[in-house]
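Open question from group meeting: does this chain pack into something compact, or does most of it stay loose? Before anyone orders reagents, we agreed to write out a predicted structure and look at it together. Recording both the input and the output here so the notebook holds the full record.
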Amino acid sequence: MQNFNALAEDYHPANAAWLARISQLAHDSPAKMTSTVEGWDMVPVISEEGVMNGRALLAYDAEKVIVTFRGAQLNRWKGRFWDVLMTDLLGSYLAPIRDAGYWGQDLKECNYDTRSDRSRGISMYRFDAGFYGVFQELWEVSGFQKLVPNAAAGGKAVWFTGHSLGAAIALLAAADQLRRGRTVQGVYLFGAPRVGNLDFAKDYNLLIGRRTFRLVNFIDHVTRVPLFATGFVHVGRVCNFDATGQLHTDYSGRRTTWDF
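Structure tokens returned:
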């Protein structure tokens, strides 16, 4: 992966390009994933396909580990996607949620200096039930999350990325790494929907919000659901593509209601 900066802390165009490529690669066949990743002089690890048609791909070399997830496959996911989209846009009911509660270990209780002036009490994290279900299947039930610390042995930088549904799963997987006291170097989310509530977003942002980048096309409706009004909030730093295709990474002056 030429020009990939494994230790970058700010937005890095070469990293964004590589992470977009590997996010797209997650949609291909296992054979194509394997040959492509090996062509980058990296070692691939591919999960079994889940019931919801999801898949995880891990690629690593001597300096980094990259984890990505397959985004929405419309032949099996379109019912869930349109349920979320239409019910949130019409405002007919609260988007389905999953109470994660203490989640085994609150993000605030990790071994990080969060400099938070908020209560040290237990936060109530809430996630979209559909996203959380796919995350559990691909990350927890499959045991794929146990592979990351093994691949990262020796101090390799760990990166998470994904597109659409894959971005939602990548965000939850990165948060899971953090709550287990493991390090995450950076997160790039392409066309990510909102995943968690305000408690989750605040705690996540204190830990790694400045190294989480959401790349958003200005007309991408997926990034606008579930609606902010239903209690779901974005994380990280938004990078907007405008109507001309120009990417804005100044993180200020261009935010709208859709960006929260």
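Observations to bring back to the group:
The two ends are 33 Å apart (CA to CA).
The first strand starts at residue 43 and ends at 46.
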